[in-house]
Amino acid sequence: MKFTSAKKLAGLSVLLIFCFMLAACSDNEANGSGDGGSKDELTITFRGGGGSNEGLVEWLNEEVIPQFNEEHPDVNVKLSPLKVNEGDYFAKVALLLKSENTAPDLVTEDTFMVNSDASAGYLEPISDKVKGWDEWGNFTENVKAGVIAEDGEIYGVPYNTDSRGLWYNKKVLKEAGVSVPWEPKTWDDILAAAKAVKKNMPKDVVPLWMNSGKATGEATSMQTFEMLLYGTGDPLYDQDKKKWIVKSDGLSDTFKFIDQVYEQDLGPDLSKALNGQGGTIAYQQLMPQGKLGIGLDGIWQAGTWREGGPAPWPESDKDLGFAAMPTQNGQDPGTTSMSGGWALSIPSKSNNKDLAWEFIKMASTKENNLNLQLKDRSLTPREDVAEEEEYQQMDFFEEASAYLENTHFRPAVDKYPRVSTVIQTLVENVVTDKLTPEQAADQYKKEVTDIVGADKVVER
Amino acid sequence: MLRSIFFLLPSWILLLVFFVGPILLTFYFSFTNLALTGTQAQSMEFVGFQNFAAMFEDPGFRVSVMKTIVFLFLSAIVGQQVLGFLLAILMKEKNQAFRRIIGIIVIAGWVTPEIVVAFCWVAFLSDSGTLNMLLNSLGLESITWLYSFPMISVCIANIWHGTAFSMMVFQASLDDVPKTVEEAAIIDGASKFQVLTRIILPMVKGSIVTNMILVTLQTLGVFTLIFTMTGGGPGTATQTLPIFMYNQAFVNYQLGYGTAISLVLLIIGIFASLFYIRSMKVQI
């Protein structure tokens, strides 16, 4: 009796395990053959939630998806946003794209990740598709460069680009005794204006906001560090020699400037600055409340204040100015900016690549791209949209477009994302007084050399 | 013999697939340059001990080890262990209602999920949080607790969360100390302190060690609490090893390096356990 019940138990266990394995396998299959269902599904992944990309979501829901459904009534377009802060988005996307079961059919890629994700085999090259597409000629050449990887293939279609400058609250600056319109010519002019705000305005007014922590991720590298660095004349990467510049006066001076801002209490409280929500605090709360003098950030912030945006501010066109970022000492060409942008890419493990391409084509038409910029307030990657009157009349469009003249792009190489995280950590360490600017510059040299290899670095 | 192997087979399979497998995989990945993105995501290479060599040269690693030790010492050993023991002693032989009320309050911290604990403490300690509101109402200035005292803040949160566990372990073992032994000691003229140090402590030594190991291992792995409260910052102020590992694997995209760090964390856990067992001379 005892023996039989034990036998039964063992048999049952084995049976259970088999069932378990079988279930796991069949689940896999069901996911793998997504095409076979009665209604095709096209999933789109982007960074959403918490006020980010509201314009993009509105545009997808109201414009592109209804149009797409008219032509493809049997396709269900599903938005699957990643509700994470900027720093986490890229890791989450990489994890999603790794597996066939989780890869969406379309993903929005910041162009600085295109190279890296393409070399990881996560993205589908679409060069052939693009070549047969008559609209491609309307895209600006330097924006196209952002989606071409080192292997020469195209991995996405850009839907926006941007430029960066100094947002300033005219009322705050005027009250602080700074003449408006404010046109700083050197870094010292920026510090002088910030000092005036600190001296003449109440204590709760933040003079100058620059993204400075690891939590704000790429925004710390690009909107702060690189906006300064490229104004010194020393870039991150020597395009001709194909080497990273790990030591230069520009690097040291950039760390020094950041240090000065916080050393002299011209920046925000660190408890706010080192927060992942830093950008939201600065531009959705402080700036509209008149509690922020100057903010170094991108044109897309205008989308924050538009009607229907996350923090509508109807007077923003009158109360705000968008000044060009000056070069360090006013040296030629006088101003500097950084540009990036986002693209729609097809993951290599997508189940619906052809449909995804149809979607990209539809989303990228002249009319749709114009509609996106009106909602999202970024710059267009299309030359024909840039000529539209409606586009040109957008607030701050004129300034932002003018900055494109002296703009720079991040190095389009595989290792950039890792160098960028080194920058973020070092900036945070300087800001929190863990490192002096000199130590940070030395540390930069050491860490970047470790990442890219001693044969790929150069000193200036 | 054959029959017993047959019966154990299912548990063997489960153990291999869900326990040994991941550990071996971690072990393997820690010797590669596997990355989350870039060329090394698709063609990783075996790099030998390179990750470990890099780790010991990495100032970030040294900082994290120090932070881990501080966090472990303050929140697990001093905080949870000592506070848990004190609570258990104070509650010993007190009346039932009193025990129950204290017990419920302390255990509330234990049953609350880590992420909820973290949010509660963020709400309490943040710039515009409850504590600052209280201070303001008393006419005092706000203090940026999470920024100015990050390590203390996360330690207090961890103590709040974990003390109940130690308390329960000690309560159980204190109840096992025979009352007659204590009474005999008191009749022989021993003070209360002597009863505690000469009678009770030696008799519950085993529980102390077991609890120390469990609390240490649990605290070594604390991630959610710190990540939610401070993100490991400001700077590297609360960057313990799990946070450092996360940053390397998912922020710097270096999965190979990240798994190497996790392996070191595992080894630290093993050594800490052995150290406790040896130093307290007990048999487990």
Automatic annotation (TrEMBL), chain A:
Stored Gene3D superfamilies: Periplasmic binding protein-like II (3.40.190.10)
Name this polypeptide is given: Extracellular solute-binding protein
Record's keyword annotation contains Signal: yes
Keyword Signal: yes
Pfam families, per database record: SBP_bac_1
Signal peptide positions on this chain: 1-23
Record keywords, A-Z: Signal
PANTHER family in UniProt: ARABINOSE-BINDING PROTEIN-RELATED, BLR3389 PROTEIN
InterPro entries assigned to the protein according to its UniProt record, in alphabetical order: Bact_solute-bd_prot1, SBP
UniProtKB/TrEMBL annotation, chain B:
Keyword Cell membrane: yes
Name of the protein this chain belongs to: Sugar ABC transporter permease
Coiled coil ranges: none
Main location: membrane
Keyword Ligase: no
Record-stated family: Belongs to the binding-protein-dependent transport system permease family.
UniProt lineage: Bacteria, Bacillati, Bacillota, Bacilli, Bacillales
Organism of this sequence: Halobacillus salinarum
Stretches assigned to the ABC transmembrane type-1 domain: 66-276
